[in-house]
Design goal:
The protein has 483 residues and is an alpha/beta fold. Helix content is 38%, strand content 21%. The protein folds into two domains: 6-258 and 459-482, Aldehyde Dehydrogenase, Chain A, domain 1, CATH 3.40.605.10; 261-412 and 416-448, Aldehyde Dehydrogenase, Chain A, domain 2, CATH 3.40.309.10. The strands form five sheets. A seven-stranded mixed β-sheet has the order 14-15-16-13-12-17-18, with helices on both faces. Strands 9-8-7-10-11-19 form a six-stranded mixed β-sheet, with helices on both faces. It has a three-stranded antiparallel β-sheet with strand order 5-6-20, with no helix packed on it. The chain starts with 12 loop residues before the first strand and ends with a strand. The model has no long low-confidence stretch (mean pLDDT 98).
């Protein structure tokens, strides 16, 4: 890996401001999904290391919380600036361990940095209230105080942004964290920690525990009474485990779990806008985001035209190693991810779906998959129920609005939905009827630090980003004063 600043490539865990090995010296390999090659071996920590990290985080949190919000904000601002200044190196690290094209990595880094900047500003705007008392001899107020030390577990699909979106609001609020990054992508997390240190984030405030035994690390975080909150992005299955494990210590939870995003295109849509939106939503990160369109519902009148044009655009996607110029789509993260995509495509074809383009392994081999468009999809297929997490656009046909809304809501998930229409009444009607935390209208991209991100139903709890995001890391204390 050729970096301008090689010291950003770290292979030790980061606890109490120190780079540490596992006590028993164990390591695990991090591989490049584009070619399967070993990039580096990283410290493989266990549950005891989690306890050590919490030991360090508890006193560090107390002095961090006592640091003026303005100082915390300035440190976060410095961290943001360092992330931006080091974008090129961070992008190489990210693409090498995760596979997404360099341009997408740079986009993710800017997106991740925007949360650090935003929450640094928000740190200074945490305000309690003074309420009118119903009794003349009382005065009522609230303090907003940091919740304490929190545990964070993040996925591999946005190795920088998912960390920034959790750690920045927590640190802004005056909390400290013990973070476990995904085992596939620990290098971006460690590079972020290196930059956080340079920015002046004190030892113990941000701890990174790397390791492959995720269940043991997760359990140690959940079981420890000193961890007052868990924030997690990943599968619904693991989210449920963490919630269950946190029950005995009654932790506050933020969960960003799976999605099964519907994308609705009505006859009255602007077709150019709808195609563009569907391409962006479907193929970003090779289809590996929890808000990627998973079921594309298109109304009768434009179904054939939409499918034909989507297939033409999909066939033109340039698949390759994300580090190479001009590549639009990299490999899937691993064999497990690849097998799931293949199984979903095979299942759909065996039940009557037609392949307009793609449909199989890409000639690059490994975990590369062809951008795929399938028509004649129906609700008996796996793709209707489960998140495919790959570059496969399955197109379902519908006749009227009511039918489309019913199908879109016929899922346990409720993260993001998309809607394409030029009819204003329909825009409001359908946006209100969709049981999702996010509805994107006439666009395939909605994420920013300003909008609240989060789901309903089995897609999770809480909101990240926006003016609401910092509340997840604050407690409201009610103070009643007799006078
Ligand atoms: P994905 O399918 O995106 O890998 P996971 O939910 O399996 O989704 O992984 C997301 C994060 O959760 C990763 O950091 C992973 O290591 C971690 N993880 C997986 N299983 C557990 C578990 N039982 N307890 C705690 N964390 C886990």
């Amino acid at each position: 890996m050729k970096l301008k600043d090689p010291s950003l490539l770290r292979s030790k865990a980061y606890i109490n401001g120190e780079w540490v090995d596992a006590v028993d010296g164990r390591v695990f390999g991090v591989h490049n999904p584009a070619n399967g090659k070993l990039i580096i071996e990283v410290a493989d920590l266990n549950a005891d290391a989690v306890t050590h990290a919490i030991d360090a985080a508890v006193p560090a949190q107390k002095s961090w919380a006592a640091t003026p919000a303005k100082t915390r904000a300035m440190i976060l601002r410095r961290w943001h600036d360092l992330v931006i200044e080091n974008t090129d190196d961070l992008a190489i690290i990210l693409t090498t361990e995760m596979g997404k094209p360099l341009a997408e990595s740079k986009g993710e880094i800017a997106y991740g940095a925007s949360f650090i900047d935003w929450f640094g500003e928000e740190a200074r705007r945490v305000c309690g209230d003074v309420m009118e008392s119903p009794q003349v001899d009382k005065r009522l107020l609230t303090f907003k105080q940091p919740i304490g030390v929190f545990g964070a577990i993040t996925p591999w699909n946005f190795p920088i942004a998912m960390i920034a979106r959790k750690v920045a609001p927590g640190l802004a609020a005056g909390c400290a964290c013990v973070l476990k990054p995904a085992e596939q992508t620990p290098l971006s997390a460690l590079a972020l920690a290196e930059l956080a240190t340079r920015a002046g984030i004190p030892p113990g405030v941000m701890n990174i525990v790397t390791g492959i035994d995720a269940p043991a690390i997760g359990k140690a975080l959940c079981a420890d009474d000193r961890i007052r909150k868990m924030t997690f992005t990943g599968s619904t299955e693991v989210g449920r485990i963490l919630m269950r494990q946190s029950a005995s210590t009654v932790k506050k939870m933020s969960l960003e779990l799976g999605g099964n995003a519907p994308l609705l295109v009505f006859n009255d849509a602007n077709l150019d806008v709808a195609i563009e939106g569907a391409m962006l939503s479907k193929y970003r990160n090779a289809g590996q985001t929890c808000v990627c369109a998973n079921r594309i519902f298109v109304q009768d009148g434009i179904y054939d035209e939409f499918a034909k044009r989507l297939a033409e655009k999909s066939a033109a996607i340039n698949v390759g190693d994300g580090l190479d110029d001009g590549v639009d789509q990299g490999p899937l993260i691993d064999q497990q991810g690849y097998k799931k995509v293949l199984a979903h495509v095979d299942d759909a074809i065996s039940k009557g779906a037609k392949v307009l383009t793609g449909g199989k392994s890409h000639k690059m081999g490994g975990t590369f998959f062809e951008p795929t468009v399938l028509t004649d999809m129906d609700s008996s297929m796996k793709m209707f129920r489960e998140e495919t997490f790959g570059p496969v656009a399955g197109i379902f046909r519908f006749t009227d609005e009511e039918e489309a809304i019913k199908a879109a809501n016929d899922t346990e998930f409720g993260l993001a939905a998309y809607l394409f229409t030029e009819n204003t009444s329909r825009l409001f009607r359908v946006s209100e009827a969709l049981e999702y935390g996010i509805v994107a209208v006439n666009t395939g991209i909605f994420s920013s630090e300003v909008g609240p991100f989060g789901g309903v139903k089995n897609s999770g709890l809480g909101r990240e980003g926006s003016k609401y995001g910092i509340d997840e890391f604050l407690e409201i204390k009610f103070v009643c004063i007799g006078i």
